[in-house]
Each structure stands twice: as structure tokens, then as C-alpha cells.
Specification:
The structure holds 2 protein chains of 2 kinds. Chain A has no helices and 9 strands. By secondary structure, chain A is mostly beta strands. Helices cover 0% and strands 56% of the residues of chain B. In chain B, the strands form 2 sheets. In chain B, strands 2, 4, 5, 6, 9, 10 and 11 form a 7-stranded mixed β-sheet that branches. Chain B has a 4-stranded antiparallel β-sheet with strand order 1-3-8-7, with no helix packed on it. Classes of the chains: A mainly beta, B mainly beta.
Chain lengths: 110, 122
């Protein structure tokens, strides 16, 4: 069951900036940090952003995250063809004592 | 380097049981919380369960509570998921994943295995 809400799709041309939103509640995003995962076709998810806006080693700085209240967003600047993937937000939920994921957003590079 | 390798998936009839394993290497397994996450065909990610680094705490998604059991053997660097009373809606790729930081379950899932497919069908 997805508790965090994302738009089903987003798109842009190469070089453009694309933003994905993620809406939650006080028990998850409102109380804990937000993480973002990228899932390329046919592969396992990969951590893209942790602690709202931190990038693991190796993640390009084209990817950035932010959080405000019970919402968060992921921005991809300078969109590239290899960014075509599914993106999921996630956060720990204090009521469930577990992670909750977003509904997922498919990014298409036109 | 960190490696997580799942095994044990396959085709199983509704109501039957299956046990998944996840062999870990490249890090101090006993220091990290571990998770199972699943993804039904063509669907999004669903968190399934977590077990603390020392096995002291275990939590489950409502959809599997009472049917699935997460466990670990720190001497064998292996994570398990015992799945009982399987249903068609449990059909999914099951991933094991490691906490990003030791002792902090909320920080995110830093490493993932390649997944193992479980198909529940008669």
C-alpha cells in the first residue's frame, strides 16, 4: 500500500529541468527525512537522495532534493536520456514502524 | 564491495509456504538493519519487513503481518523471509536491502540485491 502520493508521470527534453513532488503526512514525511530511489528498467532500485537532500557518492549533482512540512520534491536539472526511469520517494513512518514508498513517477526524456 | 544476493524464489501454490534467503558480503552484516521490499509485476515498491541489526526488533507491513516472518543469522551473514499462507497478491520480485547507516533504520535503504521472483499460482 502506497502512502506517499506522486504524479504518475513527468517528462522533459534533454537539458530541461524536471521536478517530481511527493506528498505524505505528519507520521512520515512530517516526522522523518525523505529518500528518493531511481529504478532503471529491469534493474533493482538505487538510492538517489537520502536525508532530504544528500547525494550518495557517485550520484550526479544534477539530482537534488528538498522537503517542506509533509511534502518533498526531487529535481533533475540538465535532463539526460539516461535519466529515463521510475522514481520513488520514501520515508520512515512512525505509525507503521516501517518505510512507506511513494506511488512512483515515470520520467520520460522526449 | 557490498553484495546482497537473494535466493529461494519460485512458483508456489496458494496457501503454501516459501523461504527466501539473502546472502550478504562486503560489510559487517551484524551492524546493519535489513529489510525486505517487494514489487508486483508492473507495480510500485512495497516495503515488507525490517529486522534490527541484532534481531531485537522486527516490524511488518499490514499486508503480511501474521503470515511472514523476517529473521537473520549473523554468524552466516544471511537474512531470511519465511512466507506462509501465500496468496496470489504476494506474487512479486522480492528484494533484500540494507540500511544506509548502521543502527538507523529511518535513514534509507542504501544497498539492494537483484531480487528474486515469487509467483503464487495454482
Amino acid at each position: 500500500q502506497s502512502v506517499l502520493t506522486q504524479p504518475p508521470s513527468a517528462s522533459g527534453t534533454p537539458g530541461q529541468r524536471v521536478t517530481i513532488s511527493c506528498s505524505g503526512s505528519s507520521s512520515n514525511i512530517g516526522s522523518n527525512t525523505v529518500n528518493w530511489y531511481q529504478q532503471l528498467p529491469g534493474t533493482a532500485p538505487k538510492l538517489l537522495i537520502y536525508s532530504n537532500n544528500q547525494r550518495p557518492s557517485g550520484v550526479p549533482d544534477r539530482f537534488s532534493g528538498s522537503k517542506s512540512g509533509t511534502s518533498a520534491s526531487l529535481a533533475i536539472s540538465g535532463l539526460q536520456s539516461e535519466d529515463e526511469a521510475d522514481y520513488y520517494c520514501a520515508a520512515w513512518d512512525d505509525s507503521l514502524n516501517g518505510h512507506v514508498f511513494g506511488t512512483g513517477t515515470k520520467v520520460t526524456v522526449l | 564491495q557490498v553484495q546482497l544476493v537473494e535466493s529461494g524464489g519460485g512458483v508456489v501454490q496458494p496457501g503454501r509456504s516459501l523461504r527466501l534467503s539473502c546472502a550478504a558480503s562486503g560489510f559487517t552484516f551484524s551492524s546493519y538493519g535489513m529489510h525486505w521490499v517487494r514489487q508486483a509485476p508492473g507495480k510500485g515498491l512495497e516495503w515488507v519487513a525490517v529486522i534490527w541489526y541484532d534481531g531485537s526488533n522486527k516490524y511488518y507491513a499490514d499486508s503480511v503481518k501474521g503470515r511472514f516472518t523476517i529473521s537473520r543469522d549473523n554468524s552466516k551473514n544471511t537474512l531470511y523471509l519465511q512466507m506462509n499462507s501465500l496468496r496470489a497478491e504476494d506474487t512479486a520480485v522480492y528484494y533484500c536491502a540494507r540500511d544506509l547507516f548502521p543502527g538507523i533504520a529511518a535513514a534509507g535503504l542504501g544497498y539492494w540485491g537483484q531480487g528474486t521472483l515469487v509467483t503464487v499460482s495454482s
